[in-house]
């Protein structure tokens, strides 16, 4: 090999390297910001940006974090394991400053591991905080957990899980803890937490939590992020629920003017939630507000199906009934209230068997009028789809308690409800803070009268699936404390006996209710007596009188009860 | 501060030992004797194989007598010369790079360390001390382990052994030389660390004048002002001042600031001082702890509230249950003087509160402290306090106190027994709530020591560990090559750090079994508590483990307990490292160094180098 050949070869290599540098720089030049704006850089940088693969796409780039990762020299996993063990050890030995410092180190090593942020921020806010006795110390660590999560969010921008968790921590941990009164107060006064442009009235934990929920939703809807396995109804209902919780909270604190507006906003937001398109786990798109519409659609389609061949459905029912056994028929013919237990099951099963499906109707139409087959099957298919949609909608509504919260938002903003709550609040204040029993009683009486109006206006509140009844029971229990101190008891003019009857699960008012029912029965009997015809003879008079005698004795005590003074107590 | 193992007085530790242990000196002598016998036996057996029994006996005798005679003829001049050589060698091997590395770590530490913790001093002190410790031990390891093997390899050892130096001079000269280098580096690191910590923690605040509100008494007279400072170093303080504008930024994040008014009267402008007492060195005098149960009967233990960590035990509130500390040697020297010249006994208590129900959230749990004479059982009236969970509560008991019948009593004359003891009885007053205590949670606070000297003491502990590592490294290098000596020394260090765990495995007390069983569990991915199948293989495994554990127990005696030499927690928690602790550590260090030196001497002596 001559020196000349070697030289030529070196020249060729040099030229090839130079030539390759051009496509290399085109491919790998980084994205930069110039005076003219963003230069997207080479192909690799563009792909990195498009598929969000770069560290900068994930979130903040932290040189300390990168340094620490490099410094582990490939043993990052080992280092992380050791640090996790240390963190657990510090938690066990109650060394809180070392625990938080270790978590900071772990955060540098695994900044993009979402579960780490969720786990440890929960650890700080929920587990660590309760180790302290002073509520201020507890708040400090609740806040520290929230700050930790915010740091995680900065490393993982637009991550809906972290954003949602921020809303949850700020809303639920501060607003639902046993120390919620103290936490809410501290949160409002926490100048170091709130940005300077946040006005004082917006410093409510529920409202701040709601902002984070909305940011999480924005990340999903507008930035293409996924909520993964999180339930969409929980995810999307969170801002509205936060607003509802805010409204409840400020009512409890006595701000009824603000509460009215807050409930109105809550009603709007809950309605908006109902109008949102939510994807069911099967992929079906739902709108929770569409239940009535779907039911109407089913009625229409059913009518259309029946109209194809009138009478077929009834005939099918008759056929099915004809196949029932005698026992089944007897069970069906017996009045529901009088059925013995063995008949109840028979009747239930019989009713189920009696149910004629749309498919059966369609099959019957097909067999009798084959020319209507296509149309019938099309209607059956449509009905199946709509029924499935209705079923999913009803299930999701039940899971999110949609109807209850809708009802709650509607009734809470009425003047009667606000007045009722205000009276309860003032009554409680008069009792606990001022010790004015008489004033407290009057306020509660006025409040219960308003509650009566509310319940009459919204009878669905008496449904035992709502919690308003339980709330009212709390008020009634508080009212009874006042009456006890006044040596009085619940009078016959008490307006919420039906609430006690339906919602006194612990039977605290069993005795009062029994007496009340007795009073009612006597009153009914007395009224019946008063409406007896005048030709009733002495014997007849003796009869009712004889019956009335025990009642009369009871009436005497009942009169005492009705006046609100139960001397037997 | 968490004190799991209380120190015995020096001579008790040295001669008699504690409850379940013999004194350090007897243990050292037994270990040395046992090691010597084993070495002699092994040496004799090896010699028997090579030379036959008679010659082996003669050789062994000569090695032993000659060796000890040689040791008696060590020369300070020669040792100094060899130490100088070791220093030059270290500098040539660029040991200063470690200092540069340390400075780099300090420079970039702010990237990783923040002052946004509740006790930033603790974190910073732990960081500098731990970083120094690991770095200096690594330097000591590399310097000492490669030195002799390197000289053997490059044959420069012949230039030394051909001179009239003894093996003992070589070994000791190296230990001393590397010790000097390490000490110099440690001194530089110590100064830099202290400056770093002080600078990092140093900060001031502005008083937010807009936040100031008047404090008035019931007659409306203005007594002072209350407000807050600006937020600096991730925190702010509540400020309380008197009418003249002087006051305090109340303790937050482990420190406070003095506040003084500056500027002319009428102008609200304040200045805060640098942090006060951010680094402390409390000198505690501990007592012994006992408990009374809810009937008031003395018991060994308190109640467990279910915590995994059983460091603290609890007393039930609203009952006769109490934690009782007994302090000894109480006399006038224990008392301190307050700002008005009155004498008082300063007692500090750390209470851990456990609530079984929330109660009043905004109010702490109340307890009481009573002082009692153990002989006469005379008690003071209860000093009721509200527990400050997780905080050291300082209480003062003045010379004149009152008993439960409101009679005046004298602290020293009436409450201290004839043998100088006093009892401190702490109870929780609220039913359904608990107070938790460990022995170290109540102490008499002696006058504080100097934080700077305390910092120096912590570095002294690191120095002792460094000397140990040097001694181990030099000893290993007398009979092993460089990399193997490094591995051997590293293993020694690691086992020393995990000595307690090692001993627990050796004693069969560690969950998960012995070394072989642990390996089997790792490979088969069985957790620590799952039972293993009973068959021949597992029985063989258990038998092998038992043999291994015998060796491990023997090795465990020889391992230095680096954990107990660690005094970082004293400094980081703000407690003084007692001279008792220092002397014990020094004694341990000296014992290991002497022992290792003798082993190293014999190893080098028996090695055939230019004979």
How would you describe the overall organization of this protein?
The complex is a heterodimer of chains A (569) and B (611). With 569 residues, chain A is mainly α. In chain A, 72% of the residues lie in helices and 2% in strands. Chain A contains 26 helices and four strands. Chain A has a two-stranded antiparallel sheet. The longest helix of chain A is centred in the C-terminal third of the chain and has 27 residues, at 373-399. Chain A starts with a helix and ends in a 7-residue tail after the last helix. Chain B is α+β, with helices and mostly antiparallel strands. Chain B has helices spanning 10-16, 24-51, 53-71, 76-92, 96-112, 120-154, 157-161, 167-201, 411-415, 451-477, 482-497, 499-506, 515-524, 536-558, 568-573, 579-606; strands at 207-216, 222-229, 238-242, 247-252, 255-261, 270-272, 283-286, 288-292, 298-299, 313-316, 322-327, 336-337, 343-350, 352-355, 366-372, 383-386, 392-398, 400-402, 408-410, 422-428, 433-437, 442-446. In chain B, α2 packs across α3. The longest helix of chain B is centred in the first third of the chain and has 35 residues, at 120-154. The two termini of chain B are 57 Å apart. At the A-B interface, α4, α6 and α8 of A face α5 and α6 of B.
List the helices and strands and how they pair.
The complex is a heterodimer of chains A (569) and B (611).
Chain A: H1 3-28, E1 32-34, E2 37-39, H2 43-50, H3 55-58, H4 63-71, H5 76-92, H6 96-109, H7 114-128, H8 135-155, H9 160-176, H10 180-188, H11 205-221, H12 232-252, H13 256-275, E3 278-279, E4 285-286, H14 291-308, H15 312-322, H16 326-333, H17 341-354, H18 358-368, H19 373-399, H20 402-412, H21 415-432, H22 437-457, H23 468-485, H24 497-503, H25 510-530, H26 538-562
Antiparallel strand pairs in A: 1-2, 3-4
Chain B: H1 10-16, H2 24-51, H3 53-71, H4 76-92, H5 96-112, H6 120-154, H7 157-161, H8 167-201, E1 207-216, E2 222-229, E3 238-242, E4 247-252, E5 255-261, E6 270-272, E7 283-286, E8 288-292, E9 298-299, E10 313-316, E11 322-327, E12 336-337, E13 343-350, E14 352-355, E15 366-372, E16 383-386, E17 392-398, E18 400-402, E19 408-410, H9 411-415, E20 422-428, E21 433-437, E22 442-446, H10 451-477, H11 482-497, H12 499-506, H13 515-524, H14 536-558, H15 568-573, H16 579-606
Antiparallel strand pairs in B: 1-2, 2-3, 3-4, 4-5, 5-6, 7-22, 8-9, 8-11, 10-21, 11-20, 12-13, 13-17, 13-22, 14-21, 15-16, 15-20, 18-19
Helix pairs in contact in B: 2-3, 4-8, 5-6, 5-8, 6-8, 6-10, 6-11, 8-10, 8-16, 10-11, 10-16, 12-14
